[in-house]
Every structure is written in C-alpha cells, then in structure tokens.
Amino acid sequence: MKKEKSKWIIRVILLVGTIISLYFVSWPIVTAWIAPLPETVQEQVNRAADYGFDGIIVYVDKKGEPPELYTSGYKNRESKTPADPHSLFKIASVSKLYTAVAITKLVSEGRLSLDKTLADYFPELAGRIENAGQITIRMMVQHRSGIPNYTDTKNYWVHPKESDNERLELVLDLPANFEPDSDYEYSNTNYLLLSILIEKVTGNKFLYVKEKILDPLNLKNTYASIHDVDLNDVMSGYYVGYENDLKTDNNGVMLATAEDLGKFVRALNDGSVFKDKKEQETYSSIYEYEHTGLIPGYQTIAKYDREIDAVIIQFTNTVDFEGYNWSLSEIMFSRIAKIVRTRN
C-alpha cells in the first residue's frame, strides 16, 4: 500500500513539474522552428507578420543565379506603405565590417599600425581609459581591449547620445573589464574609437570609405548617417510597445539598401574589396567576414554561406530587447538559408 502511494506521489510531482516546465517553454520560438518549411523564399518571407515583424526585406545572391529581393509587410505601418526592396535601412553593427576594412587599408598604406597603442594615437586618453598604453589597434578591432561598452551604460537606449564625443564620455574613467588581450568581449566603444581614429588620420572617415570601398564597388546607396539621406527613402523602425517611428533617431550608424550591403559582403568574401592578397590576409587576421546588427527599430543579419557561395541579407524593422524577438529573426534567417541551400 505504501509503495503504491509513493508511486502516485511521484507521478503527481512529475505531472506538476511537467505542467510548470511547459509554462516556461518559449512557444513562439518552438512554433516558428517546427513549422513545415515552405518551398520558396517568398513564402517564408510572407510569414514575417507571424513572427511579429512589421516589415522585412531579404536579398539573396547565389552564385550562378541573378540576385533576388523579397519583401513583405510594411515600410511604414502608419501609412500602410508596403515594404520597398530598395529602402534604406540602418545596418547597426554591420557598419563594423566597413570600419575594419578601412583600418586594413590604412595599415596597407602605412598610415596606421595594428601594433601601436591607443595612447600612441590619442595621448589625451592615457589617463582616461585604463590600459590605453597597452591596448593596441589590433586588440580594439578584435574586441580584446577590455574597454567597457558604452551602449551597456545604464538606460543608454532610453536617452542615446547624438555625437561620438558624448558616447565616448560615457566610459571615460571607468575601470577596464579585463586586462588587454586576456579575454574577448564585444564592445561598441572599440569601434567608436576606431572610427574617430580613421577620421583623425584621413580627415573624413566616410569620404575615405567611399573612395576606397564604395566607389570601386559602384555602391551608390550606402550612407554615413541618417542626416545624409532623404527620410522618405528610409524604412521605418519600431520597438514593441512604443508607437513612434524610430527612423529619425541618429544612432551613429550607416544606412544601406539590402542590395548594396549584399554586394559589399560578396566583395568582402571573394576578396575584390581588397587591393591585393596581402591586404586580404591582413584583414583575415583581424576580423570576420559576416555580421549582425541590432538597434531600436532595426535588425540586420548579413551572412555568406561558403558551401553554396551565397550571400543572404535580412532586414527586419521591429525590435524588442526582451523576449523572443531576436531569436525569431534568426529562425527566419535560418529557414530562408535552408531554402536557398536546398532548392535547385
């Protein structure tokens, strides 16, 4: 009798535990992940609203096939303007790819050294950023500097800063997160400082990027900031629970069309963005060949699939730093990539 009673108690405990665990399951992610894979990219893109995205743009460039653009949802949800494949989009941290290439080219030209330190180029920061005399340019490119990330400062995205100097001020005099080159930690401050350095060396960072990267690749729809474009050409951006359009916010990031970004990622991976093999080898030693980006209102995934020689760009314009939003964008992308890999 006691043994039977014990069995029932265990069964009840297991049942209760199962019910509780089911409560914490990320059902939106599970549902998106297990849904049958459609036959075409457009069918998958058409599901963007089911994932909680107001609008989506996808660019696919698979070797041997003409590039393709796909959209669904809205460019602007208030006016119900359909998503435009040629809209400009804030590419957020994907901008770092352009910065890393610019650093590589300046090194190739002998105008910068990867092994010189932050203090060598900015003596005034020696007493304001810990270990400035030991942090090399290479470490900053590789996120191995230990410099705190300014976007991690309290309530940064509630009141984002408008200028590079204001952004940098947020981390001055803070202790380092770790000793230089002893660890890895993604920090936007690294690339903020690298951008300021490129500006210092060239006189104008974006003009240098344009001359050395954009013009040779005939990329005419890539811009330095929101102040350089017609706002009517920009895809609106939204944050879950916040009604205002975020496209006018100046986040200090580049804008591009999906096609322009796709052509750049292609050139980065096939080496045509570099002047020679040595320059490409320098880049390979310091940074990566694909990237993602996330700021309020804008999510970008820009990747190259070496197995099938394909570039895939995905823009989604609805963001939530809490919950499943980013995971759902990754699931959307992975399903698109799978369709591209498996189709004839």
Summarize the entry for a quick read:
By secondary structure, this protein is α+β, with helices and mostly antiparallel strands. It is 37% helix and 14% strand.
What gross morphology would you assign?
globular
Query: Over the alpha carbons, how many angstroms does the gyration radius reach?
Result: 23 Å
Structural class: alpha+beta
* Element pattern in H and E: HHHEEEEHHHHHHEEEHHEEEEH
Average pLDDT over all residues: 92
Biggest sheet: strand arrangement: 3-2-1-10-9-8
Helix count, per DSSP?
Answer: 12
Please provide the count of β strands. Answer: 11
C-alpha end-to-end distance: 65 Å
Contiguous runs where pLDDT drops below 50 for at least 5 residues: 14-25
Residue share in helix? 25-40%
Question: How is the main sheet built?
Answer: 6 strands, antiparallel
Proportion of beta-strand residues: 5-15%
